Amino acid sequence: MPFGEMSITLDDVACLLHLPIRGIFWSPQDVTEEVAVELAVDYLGVSRGQAQSHHRAASSWAYATRAYLLMLVGSIIFADKTFTLVEARYLLLFTDLDGCSGYSWGAAALVTLYRYLGDASMYSCKQLGGYPTLLQCWIHEYFPTVGKRGENWKPADNCGLPRAMRWSYRQGVLKVDDLRPTLDELTPADVIWRPFEDHRAWRVFHYAKNDF
């Protein structure tokens, strides 16, 4: 932009999504096919072929919970460009279900989006992975003249919902080439620099300390 650079911050993530931005930051390592099978057997209750045809009833709820959480993070926070496949390594996040709330999910969402935005800056890239809702709602909050958007009838600030709930989807018709002149002509007056002041009752601004 003519007046400098802007980027999504952890405060934006906290206000828009109400995801925790403080806590353990853990990046799952790649796993082999054999380890992926073991994870599915141990933590999802998936049978290993015909040999394992029964499940323990006491663990069935834990299996279902892990499967749901894996689907949730794999299709939203850690979504890749397929938007249908989930890497088995993310199961390691849910070995201890009671500890899930201790992770900095907001930081993970932001890091993943940053990584895919770096890829998207290349001319050959045709798709964007990560959490596109975060990017879209951030644009709506800071740049009221860019893109098409609608507002929900019940403001999120009145009931403690994530600020992203303020916005409703509207199909736009502009292409990238159409938006570039608009971005190039932006001035500081076209930016809402502190959009979350009415949301501070629900998400107070604070420093994200190094808890990693």
From TrEMBL:
Organism, per UniProt?
Pisum sativum (Garden pea)
A Gene Ontology annotation in the biological process aspect, one of them, is:
meristem maintenance
Q: What stretches pass through the bilayer?
A: none
Report what the protein is called.
Aminotransferase-like plant mobile domain-containing protein
Superkingdom, taxonomy of origin = Eukaryota
Its taxonomic path starts at: Eukaryota, Viridiplantae, Streptophyta, Embryophyta, Tracheophyta
Give one Pfam family. PMD
Q: Where is the Aminotransferase-like plant mobile domain?
A: 1-198
Q: Name the InterPro entries for this protein.
A: AminoTfrase-like_pln_mobile, MAIN-like
